[in-house]
Fold:
Amino acid sequence: MKLTEKQIEEIAENLDCGMRCFYNLKTGEIKAFLDSDSWIGADEELWEEEANEIDANRADFFEFDRFDSHESFQIMEDFAESMEDNGLRKKLINALNRPKPFQNFKWQIDNSGEYRQQWFDFKKMRYIQWVKEQIDLNNQKFK
Structure:
C-alpha cells in the first residue's frame, strides 16, 4: 500500500469521527462509512452503497482499525502528561482518575481555552501515526 499524506490524514480523520475506513488495494480509493456499532440509531441507508460494495469485494479492501478505549485513554493520559501548565495537567489527570474519565477529560479540554486546539492537534498526530503503523504492518506482511 502506498498512500499519500493527504490520504493518510483523511483516514485518520474518518477514524477519529467514528467511521469505518477502508482502502481499496486495487484502485487506491478510500471508502468510509458510519460504524453502526458506534452510532446506534443512525440512518444506515446513507452508507448502504459503500457497505455493500465492500462486502461484495472484501478481498480488495484493507480495513483500518480505530483505537480501542484503552488506547484512547492512553492518548489522553499522554496529552495530560505533556502539559507544561501544571494547573491544567493536574485537572486532566484528576479527570482521568475519576469515574467517567472520557466525559470528564472532554469537559476539561472544552473549557481549557487555547489548550483545546492543542488537544485536537495532538490527537490528530497520534491518529496519523496509528494509520502509518497499520500501513507499515500490512506492507511488511506482503514483502
Remarks:
- The mean pLDDT is 89.
- The two ends are 11 Å apart (CA to CA).
